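G.,

No rush on this.
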Amino acid sequence: MTSPPVTVSLTLPSDLTQLEALLAWFNQYRPPTLPLEEWLKLELALAEGFTNAVRHAHRDRPPDTPIRIDLYIAATHIELRIWDRGDPFDLKAKLQTLPPQIAIDAEGGRGLRLLATIMDELAYQAIEEGGNCLILRKTLKPTPQ
């Protein structure tokens, strides 16, 4: 028997001190059939996406600028959407400029490469109302119960 889909949202200020609250919120939705290792990868991707929104998209914006996180969990996949109010950014073009392996001491790009490695689908889209949406999608391969 599969669980019903989960669709939830959380809005937080653009402040890195909110990361703990974000992860606590996220962890209450872990599907019991999903291996912990896979969930921890999703948690890492969420933390990286939120941190990027705060540090980069909202770099020149007030700390109360909201970041909304949408979580959708279905039997076949998990999707996270992180909505920011930053300037548009061409994620695909940036990923193409990064080397396949990024050095530990590199100035930047490690987080984007990490997201591209963890997720099955990764997109960053400008939205008409202003701002952007980072879409993180992972296909689920649950373990048998």
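When you get to it, here's the other one too:
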Amino acid sequence: MPRMIFVNLPVTDLAASMAFYTSLGFENNPVFTDETAACMVWSDTISVMLLTHEKWRTFTNRPIPPTTSSEVMLALSCDSREQVDEMTQTAGAQGGVADVNPVQDLGFMYSRSLTDLDGHIWETMWMDMSAMSSDG
């Protein structure tokens, strides 16, 4: 079995968050979805678990931070610069915030950042792997 990651995020409105992540290209896995949680799949090894606040509190007693604070920024690789732009612009159009941090364009690597409906920060990034030298 390949190693996988399941990012767990508390969300205020589960249905709205599911629609938001679907608009970014995630697919719902109904096997792990109910009225308290939704599994949104990015790839074969990366899934985001959207959890209602009530469900979240069954996993931890730590408080849910306000949407204006940041504890982590998660990065998703994209197939092209255009996909980075498309995802970030879609996030802004669907109620998130596009370019919450400055755009980074290093030529061989391009990234933008966005927030979801609950203020969780995601970085969309593309890297030109052919620019990476195996010579060290």
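The domain at 1-60 is CATH 3.10.180.10 (2,3-Dihydroxybiphenyl 1,2-Dioxygenase; domain 1). The mean pLDDT is 94.

Enjoy the weekend,
O.
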